[in-house]
Amino acid sequence: MKFVRVALDVPLEESFDFVSPPGVEIARGALVIVPFGRSRKVGVVVGHADHSDIPRQRLRQVESLVDDVAPFTPAELELFEFCASYYQRALGEVIAASLPPRLRQVSRRRLAAPSAPAAAARFTQPVTPSAEQAAAIAAVLDGRDRFHPVLLQGVTGSGKTEVYLHLIADAIARGRQALMLVPEIGLTPQFEDHVRERFPGTTLHAAHSNLAQGERAAAWLAAQSGAAQVVLGTRLAVLMPFRDLGLVIVDEEHDASYKQQEGLRYSARDVAVRRMQRLGIPVVLGSATPSLESVANARDGRYVLARLDGRAAAGAAMPVIRTVDTRADKPQEGLSHALILAMRERLARGEQSLVFLNR
Question: Quick check: 135 and 262 in contact, CB under 8 A?
Fold first, then answer.
């Protein structure tokens, strides 16, 4: 008799043993519906066994296979197992964090299979990159067929988004998928507009918690099947399955929003790096103010450093920053003489001034 081990969203338990239905072979990674206590749950088969430590009379049988969702791949299960071990959570909790709410429902309507892109993606005329942008693009593409972490450090307005778009274009042209992570939901519409304008006809899906349940499930299935060529999402998207992922970009990689603070507590940026390491594909970490750990990795040679030190727009210049020694220029009611003069000049020109106080 064959037994299957099923991971469920239950704290502290790695898996539970069930009896396979007679004559039914259930693949590892498949979603199943099982009885659990007085209720039923959706779980994922994480292994098979010829015997169980639980007496046969106490074991219950798998009710049914969720056949409208493809099984997780071995690489995806390995990622979940790593997260469970590294972040000290039950495997079922990690897998549940990957599944959208609709797919965790025992009773739901059958989901339609995602449709593949109707036609090949069309690229509008790209913006010619600056010398710094071209060097950054080349730094990533030089390692596009292997694990290749690149820290893209660029000042505000230096054109990091343009670098991202060129890299996404390369991934799509090679028939592979691209994942773009942003720290906040509010940033997704802006980048979505950039992608749709540059790549008309490209199948783009957003993935974040503000979407309706049906939309989240559709995006998840589209990424898993390969129908989604580009996925734009917040931290939860890093655990989504992909058919042929070829590039991951983590924008504002320093942002604390990439760290999940409830339930499974994980860093989406670190999970992205680990995932790309196992898949052997490049990951780009972009920021104007990189985290100290990313700077250390670049300094020690674990990451490639690409810099954008100038503004991308023609004629744009970096702001002039001047430090005033208040030991020599004694402040008057908190404002130094140099600052008062500068503000008066702006007022005389009809301009505005913004003053930050530390208390």
Answer: no
